[in-house]
TrEMBL record:
Keywords of this entry: DNA-binding, Transcription, Transcription regulation
Transmembrane segments: none
Protein name: IclR family transcriptional regulator
GO molecular function list: DNA binding; DNA-binding transcription factor activity
A biological process term (GO) from this entry: negative regulation of DNA-templated transcription
Occurrences of domain HTH iclR-type (ranges): 14-74
Residue ranges annotated for the IclR-ED domain, each copy included: 75-256
Superkingdom of origin organism: Bacteria
PANTHER family: HELIX-TURN-HELIX TRANSCRIPTIONAL REGULATOR, ICLR FAMILY (PTHR30136), HTH-TYPE TRANSCRIPTIONAL REGULATOR RV1719 (PTHR30136:SF35)
Annotated source species: Kribbella capetownensis
Alphabetized Pfam families for the sequence: HTH_IclR (PF09339), IclR_C (PF01614)
InterPro entries per UniProt: GAF-like_dom_sf, HTH_MetabolicPath_Reg, Tscrpt_reg_IclR_C, Tscrpt_reg_IclR_N, WH-like_DNA-bd_sf, WH_DNA-bd_sf
């Protein structure tokens, strides 16, 4: 029996599939529930189009609807599970790192906490001649730098362990007071990101934000880093939305979710 061709004669996806994709893209981890008017504003589609597509997407399980609120359908998680089954986390993260590197021109990395240290487990290195030394497998202390703050902010037991140990001075800007470090860890969790300048390496800046697993636990953190001469505080703030969006994308690729208490 013949089936409908999902692409048009020019090899492009059917228009309706593109519209469905744009509606799904309107949802995010910080905006998981939307009204029809909010979907209309996010997509630019006419109200009648939004109403028609949402009605059909609800019927098929793409979306769930309760009152005037619409969410991505729970059935999508069932469909998504086979997509990440057997796929290494880093296979999903590395393309995002390359996109961050290409968008900013600076090194993008993914860090995890391992055995009391933070470790670079994936990297897209800058093309600039002037760069911070970074490589996959590099081990660094957990009390200095933006990535360390993020890794501690969402792991209470790890934070307690680090705060109970002497905090060695690495640069003039390294925090060596347990009380002060505890305060910035708390602020990092409240902000959802960390920016540091010269804390682990003199003349270097870092901007980091968390990535979460399906159970809401920390999977690691995305970091943009480079020389402060190219990454002053103002530039880090300019890139904040880009990094947060990338970390949210990474969380969604992993089938993750934000913890219930941020």
């Amino acid at each position: 029996m013949a089936t409908a061709d999902p692409v048009g004669g020019n090899g492009q996806p059917l228009l309706v599939l593109g519209k469905i994709g744009e509606i799904l893209d309107a949802f995010s981890l910080d905006r998981p529930s939307l009204t029809l008017s909010e979907i209309r504003d996010a997509t630019g589609f006419p109200t009648s189009t939004v109403q028609r597509l949402v009605t059909n997407m609800v019927a098929l399980g793409f979306l769930d609807r309760q009152g005037d609120q619409v969410r991505v359908g729970v059935k999508m998680a069932y469909w998504a599970a086979p997509a990440v089954k057997g796929v290494d986390v880093l296979d999903l993260i590395v393309p995002l790192l390359r996109q961050l590197r290409d968008a900013t021109g600076e090194t993008a990395a993914f860090f995890r906490a391992e055995q009391g240290h933070r470790v670079c487990v994936a990297l897209a290195e800058t093309n600039h001649a002037l760069r911070r030394e970074m490589h996959v497998g590099k081990i660094m202390p957990l009390h200095a730098g933006s990535a360390s703050r993020v890794l501690l902010a969402w792991d209470d037991e790890l934070a307690k362990s680090v705060l109970a140990q002497p905090l060695g001075s690495i640069t003039d800007s390294t925090i060596t007071s347990a009380d002060e470090l505890a305060a910035v860890i708390k602020q990092t969790r409240a902000d959802g990101y960390a920016i540091t300048i010269g804390e682990r390496e003199q003349g270097a800046s870092g901007l980091s934000t968390p990535v979460f697993k399906a159970n809401g636990e920390l999977a690691g953190c995305l970091t943009i880093s480079g020389p402060t001469i190219r990454m002053p505080l103002a530039r880090c703030l300019d890139w904040l939305d880009l990094l947060v969006e990338s970390a949210e994308h990474a969380t969604r690729l992993l089938g993750g979710r934000f913890p219930t208490t941020m």
